[in-house]
Amino acid sequence: MVYGSADYCGGVASRKSPAVVVSVQSQMVVVPVLVLAALLAGGTSTPGDAGWGALAGAAGLAGLVLFYRDLSSGAMAVIAPITAVIAALVPLAAGLALERWPGTVALIGVSFAVVAIGLVSLAPGHSRDQRTRKLPGSAIVAGALFGLFFIALDRTSPEAGMWPLVWARLTAVALGLAVLMRLRIGLTPDRFVWPWIVGAGVLDVSANVCYLLAAQSGALSIVAPVAGLYPVSTVLLALIVDRERLRPLQVVGLGLAATALVLTSSTG
To answer: What is this structure's pTM?
Structure first.
């Protein structure tokens, strides 16, 4: 739920400022708080944990830039379903390959989650110009990068505490600043965008903490697809705040999402 709320804030901010600026700034604003939280939580970070955290940060930032950029194109009906489903399928496949297979009920719940992601993410008709037809490729890449983010955090040890997220954020910020310098884009967004950027950053890091705790104690093949249900909260916020209307298929998707959560949580 928190991931989807962060995406909503980031999407709103990207309407006013370049996606790369929004992505980098949302990563930067919470670094001090995240470091403090890691110190208070304790834990010992090994070089391996730092490496997985850095990989997660690089993949997450690249995925965010592509995702926010594509959303700003107005082709959300194409981008959101593809990105979300790929982000769930990649770690699902990795989890089934690397870990024990979950029970039948859990797998049914996961399959419901994947279908729900696609249905909930559907939006009204989109433009069919040349630029829009080229977008699905980058949506697939963004989804794969998000999936890699989920996998990398899952590979960290529980003893590392919050430190993998610190390494992820520091890596994302360093890479983002390098990209901004390369493109010669200013780091300061419009002042009216700041509340949305701060909201996106705080919510995103909160969701990362929740996901890390879940991934360190649960099966990747279950945790990642459930986390992939983040479009549910994005759609609900668009419904409440932007007064958007739900399509019938989105209502079906919400029902499948609720069913998926019940099935997967009941299996432990």
So the answer is: 0.79
